[in-house]
Design goal:
Blueprint: E1 16-18, E2 21-23, E3 27-31, E4 42-46, H1 49-68, H2 71-87, H3 89-100, H4 104-125, E5 131-133, E6 140-148, E7 151-155, H5 163-174, E8 178-182, H6 188-199, E9 208-210, H7 215-224, E10 228-234, H8 237-250, E11 253-257, E12 263-266, H9 272-284, E13 296-300, H10 301-316, H11 336-351, E14 355-358, E15 362-363, E16 371-372, E17 375-378, H12 384-387, E18 394-400, H13 403-411, E19 415-416, E20 418-422, H14 426-435, E21 440-443, E22 459-460, E23 463-464, E24 473-481
Parallel strand pairs: 7-8, 7-10, 8-9, 10-11, 12-13, 12-20, 13-18, 17-18, 20-21
Antiparallel strand pairs: 1-2, 3-4, 5-6, 6-24, 11-23, 14-17, 15-16, 19-22
Bound molecules: nicotinamide-adenine-dinucleotide (NAD).
Family: Belongs to the aldehyde dehydrogenase family.
Keywords: Oxidoreductase
GO molecular function: oxidoreductase activity, acting on the aldehyde or oxo group of donors, NAD or NADP as acceptor
């Protein structure tokens, strides 16, 4: 493992990593710093279909040796990646804060988590086992084993570029697969930093490949290529549908982890201060750009006004500024398209009659960036701002008559990623946990308070396919007579 801080994590232009070498691309783009558009992160290269094919073919060629190699070799490589990430978490955290606009503490947390995920995957690599099944016949043994899939295409979003990539790349490699990784277009530096660390972990050429570029060209080609044996996608439901169609057309394994419009219920018996704090962090933390963000706050009538007043007061105290500035509570919106989307939805909310209590404007700061004042609406369940995923610091409060009404509102959504409730009633908490239609549920915690070593879950438009470790390998049942 190379811990030498003199080895730069990234050098401009940021290049693809294909078949064990750094490659230039067909065209170039620039990765911007959303806190300061005059301080770009770096130039990066963009692949075309031909170069995407080269990466997939390299991964395919490397698969046999890698998949038949020892579990210890995989574990050692993953452990080395995790160790270097943890040793360089400050560099990674600063890079992430610059490229995505997460505050430095948030970015350091993600960088640390990403390193820990690789360590966890290293342990996972050693855990493959054979499961015996009793045979109905004397003298016959039945063993169930799991085998690697082949080339796994990994398509990632910009919102958690280190943690999402770590979880998918780590799991794919731990189970003996080869990887072609396509990050979001706006996070090439985080991807190149990760690839740089992976390149020093002793993997055979072709086992891990990074290809940067557009979703329409690179992402679509990965999903459609005949040698891609499985696709792991994280991103919006709209793009997920396209990826699913490509996978179904070839009948290959696919995993989609998509968006949410997550409900957070506050009952009249809740610890109100704790509930407001959990709503603030769940709805607005990381500039609201988390799939688990609680964008629908469903509050029982008796505490509606005090809840709304307390949340507004907390929002008024947030410092929204450069992600690397000490004391910043909320960094900028990550990119121009997302800023435009936030402003559009503020207009839509007002046009539909939702009451904008505060925020919703672009802000000016000392540096030129995508700063946005977090918005709070009071709305009705049918408003688009209460139904569609915005993926920004915009929350809508809905009034609930009682617990049953709150549960009904919580489930009245096309999505099913996560849901939270604040209550002191054990009965209500247990009922909600059982009857809310989501893959993740939190009780007296923000909806975002989830951990990466537990399965992700997700239902309805939020997920498709296995989202646990079963995705990364295929079952083989052997019948053996002596
Ligand atoms: P997106 O859907 O726009 O893009 C995701 C990825 O798909 C990018 O790499 C993009 O380049 C690629 N892509 C675009 N078009 C493609 C195509 N036709 N074929 C193949 N790939 C294509 O999403 P985004 O804006 O990057 O990320 C935000 C979304 O991600 C939100 O909806 C958020 O909820 C979701 N998300 C979900 C989770 C989760 O765990 N469920 C985690 C993080 C983010």
């Amino acid at each position: 493992m190379n811990r030498d801080p003199l080895v730069p994590l990234v050098a401009s232009p940021l290049r693809h990593y294909i078949n064990g070498g750094w490659e230039t691309g067909a065209t170039t783009g620039v990765s911007l710093n959303p806190s300061d558009l005059d301080d770009p992160v770096g130039e990066y290269v963009r692949a075309d279909v031909r170069q995407t094919d080269m990466a997939i073919e390299a991964a395919h060629a490397a698969f046999r040796e890698w998949s038949l190699g020892s579990a210890q070799r995989r574990a050692d490589a993953l452990d080395a990646i995790g160790s270097e990430m943890l040793a360089r978490r400050d560099e990674l955290g600063r890079l992430l804060a610059r490229e995505v606009g997460k505050t430095l503490p948030d970015a350091l947390t993600e960088a640390t988590r990403a390193g820990q995920i690789f360590k966890l995957c290293a342990a996972e690599a050693m855990r493959a086992f054979t499961e015996p099944v009793a045979s109905a016949r004397a003298g016959v043994e039945i063993d169930v084993t799991r085998e690697p899939l082949g080339v796994v295409g990994i398509i990632a979003p910009w919102s958690a570029p280190l943690a999402v990539a770590a979880a998918k790349i780590g799991a794919a490699l731990a189970h003996g697969n080869c990887v072609v990784f396509k990050p979001a277009e706006s996070t090439p530096a985080c991807a190149a930093a990760l690839a740089s660390i992976i390149s020093r972990a002793g993997l055979p050429a072709g086992v891990f490949n990074l290809v940067m570029g557009s979703g329409r060209q690179v992402g679509a080609r990965i999903a459609a290529h005949p040698l891609t044996a499985a696709i792991s996608f994280t991103g919006s439901a709209e793009t997920g549908t396209r990826v699913l169609q490509a996978a179904v057309a070839r009948q290959v394994r696919v995993q989609l982890e998509m968006g949410g419009k997550n409900p957070f219920v506050v009952l009249a018996d809740a610890d109100l201060e704790g509930a407001v704090e959990a709503a603030l962090s769940g709805a607005y933390g990381a500039t609201g750009q988390r799939s688990t963000a609680a964008a629908r706050l469903i509050v029982e009538g008796a505490v509606f006004e005090p809840f709304v007043d307390a949340l507004q007061a907390k929002l008024a105290r947030l410092s929204i500024d450069h992600a690397l500035k000490h004391g910043t509570d909320m960094g900028p919106v990550a990119n121009a398209a997302q800023l435009e989307r936030n402003l559009d939805y503020v207009r839509i909310g007002q046009q539909e009659g939702a009451q904008l209590l505060r925020g919703g404007r672009q802000l000016e700061r000392a540096t030129r960036g995508y700063f946005f004042e977090p918005a709070l609406f009071i709305g009705e369940p049918e408003h688009r701002v209460a139904r569609e995923e915005i993926f920004g610091p915009i929350a809508v409060v809905l009034r609930a008559d009682d617990y049953d009404h709150a549960l009904h509102l919580a489930n009245d959504t096309a999505y099913g990623l996560c849901a939270g409730i604040c209550t002191r009633s054990l009965n209500r908490a247990r009922h909600f946990r059982r009857h809310v239609h989501s893959g993740l549920v939190t009780i007296n915690l923000p909806t975002t308070a989830v951990e990466h070593h537990a399965p992700g879950g997700g239902r309805k438009a939020s997920a498709y396919g296995a989202t646990d470790s079963a995705f990364w390998s295929a079952v083989k049942t052997a019948y053996v007579a002596g």
